[in-house]
């Protein structure tokens, strides 16, 4: 087997000094950089599922990211122990894998726009229309640059945020380690190469904008990557485990799903003929029924408590499945030839699919769709205003355009003015950087002010 040490180098784009008193490993240092960043703080007002929610129970992007970080650390510890015991990883590297995954879990959604995944679709839709009607702008961009906008993705924006959009002392942004940056890139290809049903999961979407293509190339060379960085599979599993079950928990709290609905999905999705041996032994249908019946009838939130207890068991089950599958395919993963989703290819694939189907059922609820439409319209409106402002060559002639330009975050404007080529591509990115960096309520407030509603 390959030595895993090669994937745990502490290289950064700019060298970073640590004092002798600082006993953290380099990836724990990254963790602290993220925790104290403004982009991470803004996740507290970004949608996970329930947009513009007034309650304090349902998850936001911030709480979801903390949960992914926790799960990632747990998975990393289990994988690390196996690799060390097998002689694949040096004992002196102990602690590095869980630290990388904990940090990557914190940042994996840091580039997501307001209003959840519907915010991504709103940006994509806007630019498809924009390029169809603005031929001059379309002709000024390469096909790959156009695709960066019409296939906009929050995970790709995350890589850009970490590399370019945190001005601290120079153009290197947060200056995180290559290992953490590599972990968040799920699809190691450009927007022109990805977004296709061909090529397995590695080409399903894309991983970096043209503006950061050289950065990713440096990272890929450092680790001799021909596919995904190995720990990306584990981060993806942690993310799937976190949201697939937690979304159901939140939906119960909101009253969007009941006991019989959950039980029906379990019964239909866990047919005995298709189950793995481990899934049969777990007997999730009986387990869920027993957990529900064990809660006292006098307890007001009976279903919520049963689902919370069920979540604990299922998460533990899926973590074990992800660890086993990763270790079983370690040679392919290190060689870059493994091209499957860990959980879908594991002995937990059926229970994972049940929760995925349950999630789709919840997302189709009227209350969620109504707020998604609101978010969609807000983002379209803001893009209309700011794209016109940044793409116009008449900033000094039209009194509205310079005013809108000056409303963009001074941090983003400084980065654009000092570290970009001022091309149309860079100007359009400036508008998208600003809007995708907004929180849900900030975007709503901007919309209401511009429309004269308040």
From TrEMBL:
It comes from the Bacteria. GO terms for biological process: dGTP catabolic process. It holds the Pfam family HD_assoc. The keyword Ribonucleoprotein does not apply. InterPro entries: dGTP_triP_hydro_central_sf (IPR023293), dGTP_triphosphohydrolase_C (IPR027432), dGTPase (IPR006261), dGTPase-like (IPR050135), HD/PDEase_dom (IPR003607), HD_domain (IPR006674), PHydrolase_assoc_dom (IPR026875). Residues 61-244 form the HD domain. Keywords: Hydrolase. GO terms for molecular function: dGTPase activity. CDD domains: HDc. This is Deoxyguanosinetriphosphate triphosphohydrolase.
């Amino acid at each position: 087997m390959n030595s895993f040490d090669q994937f745990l180098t502490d290289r950064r784009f700019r060298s970073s000094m640590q004092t002798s008193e600082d006993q953290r490993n380099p990836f724990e240092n990254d963790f602290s950089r993220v925790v104290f960043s403004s982009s991470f703080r803004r996740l507290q007002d970004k949608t996970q599922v329930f947009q513009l929610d007034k309650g304090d129970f349902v998850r936001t992007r911030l709480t979801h990211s903390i949960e992914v970080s926790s799960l990632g650390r747990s998975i990393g510890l289990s994988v690390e122990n196996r690799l060390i015991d097998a002689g694949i990883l040096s004992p002196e590297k102990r602690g590095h894998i869980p630290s990388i995954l904990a940090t990557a879990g914190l940042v994996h959604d840091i580039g997501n726009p307001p209003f959840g995944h519907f915010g991504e679709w709103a940006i994509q839709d806007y630019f498809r229309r924009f390029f169809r009607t603005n031929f001059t702008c379309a002709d000024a961009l390469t096909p790959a640059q156009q695709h960066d906008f019409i296939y906009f993705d929050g995970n790709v924006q995350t890589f850009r945020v970490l590399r370019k959009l945190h001005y601290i002392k120079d153009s290197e942004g947060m200056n995180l380690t290559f290992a953490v940056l590599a972990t968040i890139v799920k699809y190691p290809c450009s927007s022109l190469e990805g977004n296709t049903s061909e090529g397995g999961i590695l080409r399903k979407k894309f991983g970096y904008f043209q503006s950061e293509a050289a950065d990713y190339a440096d990272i890929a060379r450092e680790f001799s990557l021909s596919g995904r960085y190995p720990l990306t599979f584990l981060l993806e599993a942690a993310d799937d485990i976190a949201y697939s079950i937690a979304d159901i928990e939140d939906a119960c709290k909101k009253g969007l799903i009941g006991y019989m609905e959950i039980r029906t999905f379990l019964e239909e999705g866990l047919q005995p003929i298709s189950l793995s041996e481990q899934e049969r032994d777990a007997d999730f249908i009986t387990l869920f029924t027993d957990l529900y019946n064990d809660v006292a009838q006098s307890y007001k939130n009976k279903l919520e408590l049963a689902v919370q207890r069920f979540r604990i068991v299922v998460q533990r089950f899926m973590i074990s499945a992800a660890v086993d599958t990763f270790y079983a395919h370690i040679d392919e993963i290190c060689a870059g030839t493994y091209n499957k989703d860990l959980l879908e290819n594991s002995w937990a694939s059926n229970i994972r699919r049940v929760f995925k189907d349950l999630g789709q059922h919840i997302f189709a609820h009227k209350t969620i769709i109504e707020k998604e439409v609101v978010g969609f319209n807000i983002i379209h409106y803001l893009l209309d205003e700011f794209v016109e402002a940044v793409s116009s060559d008449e900033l000094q002639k039209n009194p509205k355009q310079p005013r809108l330009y000056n409303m963009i975050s001074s941090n983003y404007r400084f980065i654009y003015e000092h570290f970009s080529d001022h091309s149309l591509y860079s100007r359009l990115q400036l508008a998208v950087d600003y809007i995708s960096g907004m929180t849900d309520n900030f975007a709503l407030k901007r919309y209401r002010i511009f429309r004269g509603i308040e």
